[in-house]
Design a protein that fits this description.
The protein has 72 residues and is an alpha+beta fold. The chain is built from 3 helices and 2 strands. It has one domain.
């Protein structure tokens, strides 16, 4: 459908497929359904006709405290 633009408004990315597997523990999820690494996200967008993604940064819990302290 070229009548409208599809925008994925909630996307989390990982640096690598391995990092994605470690963060999002989804038993039975097929490799082709994993698109958390940037290069896989682009493949997913092309396959599903998505023109844009809003990327939400994932900050590991153990890193949040020090970042908050630095921001004060």
């Amino acid at each position: 459908m070229a009548d409208f633009e599809i925008i994925d408004a909630h996307t989390h990315l990982a640096r690598t497929p391995e990092e994605e597997r470690n963060w999002w523990l989804l038993p039975g999820r097929r490799a082709c359904d994993r698109y958390g690494a940037p290069e896989k996200a682009v493949e997913y967008m092309k396959r599903e006709g998505i023109s844009k993604m809003v990327v939400l940064t994932l900050i590991p819990r153990q890193d949040r405290g020090p970042l908050v302290e630095k921001a004060k």
